[in-house]
Amino acid sequence: MAAEFFTMGVRELQAGLKSKQFSAVEIADAALERIGGQDERIHAFLEVTDQAAHQAAQAVDAAIAEGKGADLGPLAGVPVAYKDNMNLEGTHTTCSSNMLADYVSPFTATCVQRTLQAGALPLGKLNMDEFAFGSSTETSAFGPTLNPWDPSRVPGGSSGGSAAAVAAGLATVTLGSDTGGSIRQPGSFCGVVAVKPTYGVVSRYGVVAFGSSLDQVGPFARSVEDAALTLNAIAGHDPLDCTSQAVATDFTANLAEGAAGMRIGIVPAFMQAEGLQPEVKAKITEAAEKLEALGAQLVEVELPNAQAAMSAYYVLGPCEAFSNLSRFDSVRYGFRDPGHKDLGSQYEASRAKGFGPEARRRIMLGSYLLSAGVYDRYYYPAQQVRTLITADYTAAFERCDCILAPTAPRTAFEFGEISDPTSMYLSDMFTISINIAGNGGMSMPVGLGAESGLPIGAQLISPAFKDQNMLRAAAALETVYGPAPIAPAFAPKAGE
């Protein structure tokens, strides 16, 4: 990809298209060439869709040639790629699992379809933790994605491929899904803007479900504006998803208003949490001071039940995962172990071999939690905790416009460094409560750690359906920190 393309944002690409400085086909060719030359270094892509990208590019160029440049969609000519739990007709949708290794999508997810209708150039499907179960992309059946900032470290997860592709300049925008932090945590680890909108803002139809009451689709980008423009394209009611809501917000409308007059909530318990690295705490404290210097008012707020979010999540999540994964029975589709004469042994062998260790762990945990005698002791209390956490956020937002907190307790860890599942789950200690409550949340890069030299993300949390609050605060921070840089090893060289 020519340097002038892979460093450009959405507005810049579209301005060049409309003025005919270059064509959408040239953008597509350059993007595909860059993926072919660079992706082997990080393994972000599982499938590249050359033909679909060219067809979309030709449609954009034809519209411009016909004088319809003013009517181009909000993502026209923009290279976009998708987490591999999102169906795109004619492509493999594997969820990075052997269970779906040969599955070809017969339809397209609404969120993907809306990017295509907006003129995006679809580059392909991106690596992830198997069925979104993980925080490192290490559970992918097809090998991990590497962090573009340091290939010895994880990119985060479960949307690790989506975050890494943007950080390496392999796509301008990508889509991921977030069930307990799977957009925001890899966004922090890879140093990019990563947005989980309020539950219901984006349709989940056609996205392979993990936790149906928790999942939400959102964008990765290198600027707040690019993420907001992508939200404009994919948000809104979908009759195919009964949880989706009619959203008429222009997510770019208040990005230039600055932080002056905003009330930014600070949660003391988050800043004093055990396991929070000093360099992360220092950067979040610095970001708060920057917002205050920009005219915002810092307000301490309490979330007294947030400490129970992890426990509630690891009841609700596995229960919903158990229910959702029961559809993979190896009869209608999916991996089927050969040579079995009865249905029971075929089920057992196929699911044991088709699912990886983490998927099997969550299936068994969900099965146990939903069993007779256990359900009442765990599932009901978890739902009660959910109600309390939601009420806590409602009360907090009576005192502030958005909350500033760490995205992750630490910077990206090395491959194999965390082998204990419980320790891995703690990677999402600051993100899970937002999924429990359904609020919007995003990660905004605020520089590199003084000790590690790795990216650190500040998390901004908004009231439900007021995602523009966090985007406005993030845009204000971006005037200080700048848009997310491409990882140095992938950045354009001098004279390129």
Summarize the structure.
This protein has 496 residues and is of the alpha/beta class. The chain has 17 helices and eleven strands. The mean pLDDT is 96.
List keywords for this structure.
12% strand; globular; 17 helices; single chain; 496 residues; alpha/beta; 11-stranded mixed β-sheet; Amidase signature (AS) enzymes
The chain-level structural class is alpha/beta
Would you give the CATH topology? Amidase signature (AS) enzymes
State the assembly state of the protein chains: single chain
Number of domains: 1
* Strand/helix succession: HHHEHEHEHEHEEHEHHEHHHHEHHEEH
Report Rg.
21 Å
- Give the tally of β-strands: 11
Mean pLDDT: 96
Characterization of this structure:
The chain has 496 residues and is α/β, with parallel strands linked by helices. It has one domain: Amidase signature (AS) domain (Amidase signature (AS) enzymes), CATH 3.90.1300.10. Helix content is 38%, strand content 12%. It has helices at 3-6, 10-18, 24-38, 50-65, 110-117, 160-167, 184-190, 224-234, 268-271, 278-293, 309-325, 343-354, 357-369, 375-396, 421-425, 432-437, 467-481; strands spanning 45-48, 79-83, 121-126, 173-178, 193-196, 216-221, 263-266, 297-300, 402-406, 440-448, 455-462. Strands 1-3-2-4-6-5-10-11-9-7-8 form an eleven-stranded mixed sheet, sandwiched between helices. The longest helix has 22 residues, at 375-396. It is globular, with a radius of gyration of 21 Å. The relative contact order is 0.14.
